[in-house]
TrEMBL record:
Name by which UniProt lists this protein: DUF1232 domain-containing protein
Principal location listed in the UniProt entry: membrane
GO cellular component: endomembrane system
Domain of life: Bacteria
Domain named DUF1232: residues: 31-66
Record-linked InterPro entries: DUF1232 (IPR010652)
Amino acid sequence: MGKIKAWAKNLKQQIFVLYLANKDERVPWYAKLFTACVVAYAFSPIDLIPDFIPIIGYLDDIIIVPIGIMFAIKMIPNEVILECEVKAEEMMKNGKPKNWIVGSLIIMLWSIIMLWVILKVYQLFN
């Protein structure tokens, strides 16, 4: 159980590293775009596979997020990662950052997507 907690803590710290790296001007635009998607998905309360579905509901948290983090870290220069790791460790000690604007945008985006899907399904059956 201790290994799982350490893995989860490391995963959370890597998400903060990506969050901080996304603000650095030394990171290429394509890496910023990919990193923003990974961080938004990790922080999003909505998953591709809902968690209430037994077993496979947690697959996106266990597989998709770590793979996205791995690819994002490979796109970012090493010196940026090292600097952001120090900042992320400090941030985790002081508490998570709260960005209500971005959180609201994520929820609004998911709501628009869900509304679009509902409308398409409704049109399909009528």
